[in-house]
Design a protein that fits this description.
mainly alpha
Length: 163
């Protein structure tokens, strides 16, 4: 929460700061629930979709067609990755909650910035998993970690830096 709050403080007086606070609260909620239960609440996903659509509809600088296209493309791509991993490994390595979460995240970032966001989230998660594996002296394949918090934080950084 301190990381989110410090990032918000850097924004200064901005008329839409309440929206940033609301989105931050949603991302924190998703992250906490995902870390505890390995699931992403549907209500949080719906709330984030509504916030993203409100932002897209009220900010004339946003190319809404591109953001909508990203919100269609990225969940389909994540679902393809999820199914391929399940087919190859026999277990679910990426949950369907992460697939659904990509809708609001891509709405916030747009199709191109979402690629950067996913890269940052992936590298962050991999770095933490490698560190934990080394500290616990376990193979990385024996670790399970939710991906939602990494996606949320990376989206927040990408979205706020683009405002």
């Amino acid at each position: 929460m301190a990381v989110y709050a410090s990032g918000l403080a850097l924004l200064g007086p901005w008329p839409g700061i309440w929206l940033v606070w609301a989105v931050s609260a949603g991302f924190i909620w998703v992250s906490i629930v995902d870390f505890r239960q390995f699931e992403i609440p549907d209500l949080a996903t719906i709330g984030l979709i509504c916030a993203a659509l409100f932002w897209i509809a009220t900010d004339p600088r946003v190319p809404w067609q591109a953001h909508i296209a990203g919100a269609v493309f990225w969940p389909i791509g994540f679902e393809a990755i999820r199914r391929m991993f399940l087919w190859r490994s026999g277990f679910d390595g990426l949950g369907f909650g992460d697939v659904k979460l990509m809708v609001p995240l891509a709405l916030f970032c747009g199709p191109v910035a979402t690629a950067n966001m996913v890269l940052f989230a992936t590298l962050s998660a991999l770095g933490l998993m490698l560190t934990l594996a080394a500290l616990r002296r376990q193979p990385i394949t024996h670790l399970a970690m939710p991906f939602g918090p990494f996606l949320c934080f990376s989206t927040w950084i990408t979205w706020v830096s683009g405002l």
